[in-house]
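We treat protein structure as text, and this decision shapes the records that our systems exchange. The remainder of this section carries one protein's record, kept here as part of the documentation:
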Amino acid sequence: MRQTVLIVPGYRGSGAGHWQTWLEQEVPEARRVSGIDWEDPLLARWAGEVRREIDEAPGAVWIVAHSFGCLASVVAAADRPHKVAGLLLVAPADPERFDLLGLRRDQQAGASVAEHLPATSFNCPSILVASRSDPWLGFDAARRWAERWGSHLVDVGRAGHINVDSGHGAWPLVLTLLAQLRATAADVPLGPLPPRAEPRRGRNGVLARLRHQTRRVINRQPRSLDGF
């Protein structure tokens, strides 16, 4: 059965020199999530587009996410446990640096998106790759998120944010990690299920709750955001 490797970049996207762009060229079944404004890290919108890509994929989906894309991916994956085969989360962004409307300019004002992320382990295997010199997430915090999600933590040492600035263009390790993730889930039956059997979380889903809270925040703002 056909499978999809869904690449989910982070804030400001992944350009020509980024390892995600290299991976997209190396893996025939890879595709990049579309419909996202990379300059506007609105978690509800990003997670909605990731979930749409999961729904439209013909078979099981393997997600390879980076930075803020990791946060959007875990929200979407939580709503599609029988479609997502595995998650490779590389250098997640710190949820405390974002609120429901984007970058959290004032760390003392308002709540972060942390409380809106999944609180338990995923139904699928997951790997969280963390750097000890990542300016976007401390290693201890990365360890706590890995424990929360039941993810295997991979320590890559002092590798910055694992992006172009830290020299991560062609990055063979990501191919190795993706292969390991697929091997871990090799015996798990995945793929599209009959419509009645597919667990669509609806109003009780992680994304639905996130959207509801985002609308409440938007309604209290002087500016308006379309799409909610």
Confidence is low (pLDDT under 50) at residues 191-198. The first helix runs from residue 19 to 26.
